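User: Hi! I have a protein structure encoded as tokens and I'd like to know what sequence might fold into it. I'm fairly new to this, so please keep things simple.
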């Protein structure tokens, strides 16, 4: 997993620019609530942790028109809206232009509102609340970013623990066939709060199961290649080193918690066992 690139800029100025492209009555409605939106933006950008226990939006349900026009800032087809959303995609690292940061399995074809529009409409067009995402993860996450005042999903702009390995795999046998079982493990330098978020993230998106299916569909082929390499004269040590190189190459490009990197890590540590099974 990798951290997304936050395009930054003056978020409130972008909101004002959106207003300038609106027509009435939306233009007047949004102009009248600008100062309130600015306060909400500052809370998200400067004191994000406060939002986990914030009961509700600063814009109450009875303010239906204000809420509707705030959400309309995202769905708007104005030039500024289109450019801002396109910039979020285009400025991501190359890997995250191709793979969803939430799962690293599918292409990010949509933007996830980390905090949902219906719950907090004031963040509908806030760039730091818009994270590239695949359809599957967006559907599974839906609007549930917290539960019981605790975040359940990794925030790919704010969180900064991606250098810590927490995804691991173990070699197991299923009906005498080798398979890898993925699990999460907490390192000494990863605090309990962050590890809990990671666990919930993987649980709600069913990532351990998905990684297992993806990996085990490749494993038999990988082991056949290993057997052929040994038959051609490669030593166990050389084979282990070769697998470690593959692990490091994937980790360098996709992060240490990329399922393919972790697969090669486990294989490099279990060469003898894999060969003996086959």
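Assistant: Happy to help. Inverse folding works backwards from shape to sequence: for each of the 278 positions I chose a residue that suits the local structure. Here it is:
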């Amino acid at each position: 997993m990798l951290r997304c690139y936050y395009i930054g800029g003056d978020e409130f100025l972008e909101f004002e620019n959106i207003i300038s492209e609106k027509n009435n009555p939306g233009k007047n409605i949004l102009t009248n609530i600008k100062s309130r939106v600015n306060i909400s933006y500052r809370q998200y950008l400067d004191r994000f942790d406060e939002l986990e226990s914030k009961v509700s939006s600063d814009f109450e349900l009875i303010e239906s028109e204000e809420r509707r026009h705030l959400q309309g800032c995202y769905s708007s087809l104005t030039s500024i809206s289109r450019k801002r959303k396109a910039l979020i995609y285009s400025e991501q690292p190359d890997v995250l232009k191709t793979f969803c940061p939430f799962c690293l399995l599918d292409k990010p074809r949509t933007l996830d509102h980390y905090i949902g529009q219906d719950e907090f409409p004031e963040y509908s067009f806030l760039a730091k609340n818009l994270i590239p995402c695949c359809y599957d993860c967006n559907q599974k996450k839906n609007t549930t970013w917290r539960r019981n005042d605790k975040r359940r999903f990794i925030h790919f702009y704010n969180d900064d623990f991606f250098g810590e390995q927490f995804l691991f795999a173990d070699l197991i046998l299923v009906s005498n066939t080798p398979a890898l079982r993925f699990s999460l493990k907490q390192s000494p330098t990863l605090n309990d709060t962050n590890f809990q978020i990671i666990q919930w993230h993987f649980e709600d998106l069913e990532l351990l199961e998905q990684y297992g299916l993806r990996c085990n569909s490749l494993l038999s082929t990988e082991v056949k290649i290993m057997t052929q390499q040994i038959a051609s004269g490669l030593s166990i040590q050389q084979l282990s080193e070769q697998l470690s190189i593959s692990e490091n190459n994937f980790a360098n490009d996709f992060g240490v918690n990329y399922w393919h990197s972790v697969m090669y890590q486990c294989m490099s540590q279990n060469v003898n066992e894999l060969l003996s099974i086959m």
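A useful reference point when you look it over: The longest strand covers residues 167-174. Feel free to ask if any position seems puzzling.
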